[in-house]
Amino acid sequence: MKKLLLVAIGLFSVLPLFSKGYDDYLAEAKKFEAQKRWCFALGSYYDALGTEGDFESKKEAYDAYKKLSNAIMDGKPGLGTFNEFTMHDEWRKLLIDAEKYGSSFCIHDIELSLTKEKLDYATKTATYIARAYTHTSRRIWDRYEATINVVQNGYICAWQEDWKDLPAASGNNGGCLQCQRRACTGLSGQESSDWKIPDVLF
After folding, report:
1. Are 178 and 164 in contact, with CB atoms under 8 Å apart?
2. d(CA 112, CA 9)
3. SS (H, E, C) 14-51
């Protein structure tokens, strides 16, 4: 059997990762931050850190990413000061923002193959088998961890039982402000203020 075609594509990915320059991503992140589109801002800061160049030249993006991600991991729905009412309302907005951001790319790659099985010389027809395989893209998964997972962990910290109109969050221990961050851990089991950006970038 002869394999005729092998194609790898990223499903739903409109643009490849890191397709723009550092300055472009940084400006984009600042624009999203000004609009309080916090998850998109995280994503653009992350993409800025993935561009070519040494770490020192990306310090502004790194510091901005850390400031924003730490605030969210501490249970805040972004940067700023919140009371009990605005915490609820702004978390609603952040969850919607994260849903929109997450739907803009897919963490899986799709691999398609077309294999010739046999030829029928009498009817002059050929039989082919098409197969599709999926696998997780490491670089896109790291982007997911640096954005969607940050929001998810922050929401677990912030969620309150009387937020009846918002999704329930498992693993909550009263919210960060109430539990004084006892239940607040980062993606690697660290406290959120010590959480590190995925090492794949450095």
Report:
1. no
2. 8
3. CCCCCCCCHHHHHHHHHHHHHCCCHHHHHHHHHHHHCC
AA letter at 58:
K
Query: Cα(202)–Cα(200) distance, rounded to whole angstroms?
Result: 6
Token representation of residue 172: 């909550």
DSSP string across 52-117: SS-GGGGHHHHHHHHHHHHHHHTT-SSSS---HHHHHHHHHHHHHHHHHHHTTS-SEEEEEEEEEE
Alpha carbons 157 and 171: distance in angstroms, whole number: 8
Query: Is pTM beyond 0.70 here?
Result: no
53 near 133, Cβ under 8 Å?
no
Measured in Å, how far apart are the chain's first and last C-alpha atoms?
43
pLDDT in tens, 54-109: 888 999 999 999 999 999 999 999 999 999 999 999 999 999 999 998 887 666 66
Q: 52-77 as b/e, with b when 16 or more CB fall inside 10 Å?
A: eeeeeebeebbebbeebbbbbbbbbb
Nearest CA to 1 out of 124, 121, 127 is that of 127
Positive or negative: CA dihedral 137, 140, 142, 144: negative
